[in-house]
Amino acid sequence: DLQICQHRAPTCCTKKMEESYQAAVRRERTQSIQTLNFELKYVIVGHITAFQEAFESLLRFAENRTSSLFETAYRPMAKEAAEPVKELFTDISLYILGAETTVESAVLRFFDSLFPLVYSRLINPGITDLSEDYTECLRLTRQDINPFGRYSKNMVTELSKSLWASRLLSQALSLGIEVINTTEHAALTKECSRALVKMQYCPHCQGLTLIRPCVGYCLNVMRGCVASVSELDAQWREYISTLEYLTNEMAASHDLENALTGIRNSINEAILHAQLNGPQLSATVDKVCGQPKRQEGNPPLDNVVPVKEATEAQTFVMAHAGLNNKRREFISYMKRSRTFYASIAERLCDGDLVMRDSSTCWNGEDVV
Asked: What does this chain do (predicted)?
């Protein structure tokens, strides 16, 4: 009553043993593919971790630099500016990780929150009554009167150019892991598991436990079994090309490190621009939002302190040159894996599975 290992000679197998063999080949095939995938997955996961760690480190550094701008140059508003600064960098982080947000919305929301502070602490430091309604009016007015000139839009442009490749690379790396995980769990067809049993275990039914499959026979069986996975070859090659393009874009002129560390200077220029145009801004705001309560006689405040160029930024960018080296190593490895899905049958037939150095092997029907 054997269904797979039918042979003219006497057999030591039963139908129940054939069923056990089918369960065994399914388990072995999944393990074999997982073993092949392990190194590739390990490299991609390692790069995702390195990329995210370096990125988080960059963000923290850029956020600290930006906060120190307010603490050293704009002390009257430093405490209140802490929250908008934190929100800005949180939004940038979420954007990189693929959240449904944009760089433009993050930057403009930041400047909306910044304007009431700049207006009431630097341009008109005598304002005492900053009610919620008045603050909201200032936020909305910012969009119409553009107190920060071209600097807010320049910041959007620079960050957008630098961050889009990082965002796409982050999404692409996650997609790579998803593809590899999916191929590990691709179900074997009934025909495939029967062919694998015939190739690997039917010789056992005749007591031939040391005879292994012929190379050509193994390749034919495996190519049939992994046909659906092999079809990924063209898309996988295209995927590797996309990774190469994105890593090159990240290392190009619109560099992630420079863009993030440059946020501080962009904000400083924007605030200086607003201060220089203080009288015109006050006249417009008074018409739109009304006149707020003021203290008698404005106290003299040294509002504008020249900001020293932070040399630690250059040191930091140098330190993150290591990230570029990691990118290069990663893409070099990934380029070597271009044929990963095209050659999967050959690699499954490698090693101990087939007979390579002997004159006898199993061809599915007999020892040859």
From this structure: Cell surface proteoglycan.
